[in-house]
Amino acid sequence: MKHLYLLIITLFSAIMSLSAQQFSLPADGKWYLVAKVGGMHSAFEYTYTHTTAHTPSLVSGKFQFINSQSFAIQEHHSMGYNAWLQPQFALLNLGAESQIWVKAALGADLGTFKISNLLAGSSEMGSVSDENLNDNGGIVTTYDKIRDNAHTYVGNLNVINGSVGIGTDLPSEKLSVNGNIRAKEIKVESANWPDYVFADGYNVGTLKGLESYIKTNKHLPDMPTAKDIEADGLELGEMVKMQQKKIEELTLHLISLDKKLSTLELENRKLKVKYKKR
User: Fold this and answer.
1) Which of 35, 108, 127, 195 is within CB 3.0–4.6 Å of 27 for a Cys-Cys bond?
2) CA distances from 163 to 63, 121, 148 (A)
3) Nearest to residue 124, comparing CAs of 184, 208, 35, 197?
């Protein structure tokens, strides 16, 4: 009887433990605390699913977070049919404790959030909700919503569908960096380098025509405007090539002006000699 009693208690504890590892995540715009750790490193795996088939969504992933640090290394896998119904995560660093919070997208169905394989700390499973994490006195790092149908790494490096983002979770190019880049050397491949400017028959135009164009358009010919650069950025290879073209054209103008100046100086010396003979 005693062994049966102990077995029942063990099973009950196991059931309670399992049920404590998941909770219903409402889409009410609030943050819900899911895990915290103090004084050590921690990691956990999670799954998040919607409960109906009308807007199906499934997200799974891993978190690694370190006490007293303001970042987490994450990996997410998501699938859904309606855009932006995936969750959003945040890390709250309180100095002596680090916390992971989750928020469902507004308009999503009631979902189930489940934690497994928690390394250290405690799983809170939505025990606390908060509308604004910035009023807790700690450092808040908020991550963008997980994207639909994506394999995403969040942290120092993000990889989405073959594109790499550093400091951004939505790389718009094969490599997108939200910040400064420092390197010993950058090599940019470029075709049709503008040495054709020095070919016979190239029409470099006139300085008078260039002045007229600048007065009308407020930028050099064939060069993007300030508005274009602000909106679209600049392609380094193309910009260097365009600048090289302008340098070569200006070099031709300088050579032409130098020849005219030499001719004027020669004529001036002849006039001086002629004037002295009088």
Assistant:
1) 108
2) 21, 34, 15
3) 35
- Tokens of residue 253, six digits: 């103008």
Of the CA atoms within 13 Å of residue 198, those in its CB half-sphere come to 8
Given a contact cutoff of 8 angstroms between Cβ atoms, the answer to whether 240 and 190 are in contact is yes
CA distance 243 to 126: 57
Q: In which residue are the tokens 């119904």 written? A: 85
Rounded Cα–Cα distance for residues 124 and 197 (Å): 69
In SS3 terms, the chain reads as CHHHHHHHHHHHHHHHHHHCCEEEECCCCCEEEEEEECCCEEEEEEEEEECCCCCCEEEEEEEEEECCCCCEEEEEEEEECCCCCCCEEEEEECCCCEEEEEECCCCCCCEEEEEECCCCCEECCCCCEECCHHHCCCEEEECCCCCCCEEEEECCCEEECCEEEECCCCCCCCEEECCCCCCCCCCCCCCCCHHHHHCCCCCCCCHHHHHHHHHHHCCCCCCCCHHHHHHHCCCHHHHHHHHHHHHHHHHHHHHHHHHHHHHHHHHHHHHHHHHHHC
Sign for the pseudo-dihedral over CA of 170, 171, 177, 179:
negative
Neighbouring C-beta atoms of residue 99, cutoff 10 Å = 24
Asked if pLDDT for residue 6 goes beyond 60, the answer is no
Single pTM value for the model: 0.62
Q: Integer distance in angstroms from the first to the last C-alpha of the chain?
A: 140
153 contacts 204 by C-beta, under 8 angstroms: no
pLDDT digits (tens, 9 = 90+) for 228-270: 999 988 888 899 999 999 999 999 999 999 999 999 999 898 8
105 vs 168: CA distance, rounded Å: 20
Beta bridge partners of residue 169, listed in sequence order = none
By percentage, how much of the chain surpasses pLDDT 70? 89
